[in-house]
Amino acid sequence: MKKRMISFLLVAALLFAGAPSAILTAQAAEDPYAAYRERDHFGFVLSANRIKYMSPDRLGEWMGSFDQIYDAFQELTGVTPLDGQRITWRSSQENGAMWIYYGEPSIYIGKDHVDYYIREAEDNDGFTGWGPPHEIGHVFDGLPGGFVREWVFNDEISANIKAVYAVDVLGLKVEHGGKLINTLEELYDYFLNYGPEHDLFLCAMINIVDEFGWDPVKKTYRSYSDGSYTGNYEGASKTSGIKYNDFLDRLSYYTGADIRAAKYFESDWLKRFDARFPLPATD
Ligand SMILES: [Zn+2]
């Protein structure tokens, strides 16, 4: 009530001073969510009738978890995307679950999915869903149709490697196939049995991380810019096959193991990925 009075006086004072935009400014101060709309790395633009399902405190935690994901991906990759520009989450009239445009830059949540994410986050402490770490993962990979980092041999696999990292180190709760998941074991089981074929690469990454931890993966990402690995494909135009083989070579280099070995890429997985991302024929 006291706050309202101060706002009223502020409006009156500013009106008196002849500032036409003062009413909007003062009304924003009444918004219980206002303090949470801008975080370190993200802004949050979702209509009030969507976020009403979430308490202001929980909204703050939810947004804070996105900052944690961003910070974790900086730690994993050693890069700061888009020169550190703040990224805006927006609801969209379109119905896709979640996608990203870089122009602004923004991450969009389809209108039918806003309620889902918000209700789940309100009901389950630590829930972010798979979409947010996946989309933030894309942000760290570069710009679709423009600059793309050399480690991206496949957009979706690359974004998902980062989401796997976020689940592991932050213990995020995500959902796959109607099940809440927050461990590498559960992710492995899901990818192995229910995911699309490209998720088998994530199973291999989980096998590698299980033995070596994330440190060699961090070194692999950093090696693209720190000169610690010169690479076998210097000067070649980087096809997805070259990028894929380069990524595996770097992982082998930093783990000190042949990560193409059968115990990491089980069954015929390696054969399938080799066929999908072939090296160009040499003459
Ligand atoms: Zn994606």
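^ zinc ion complex. The radius of gyration is 22 Å. The chain has a mean pLDDT of 84.
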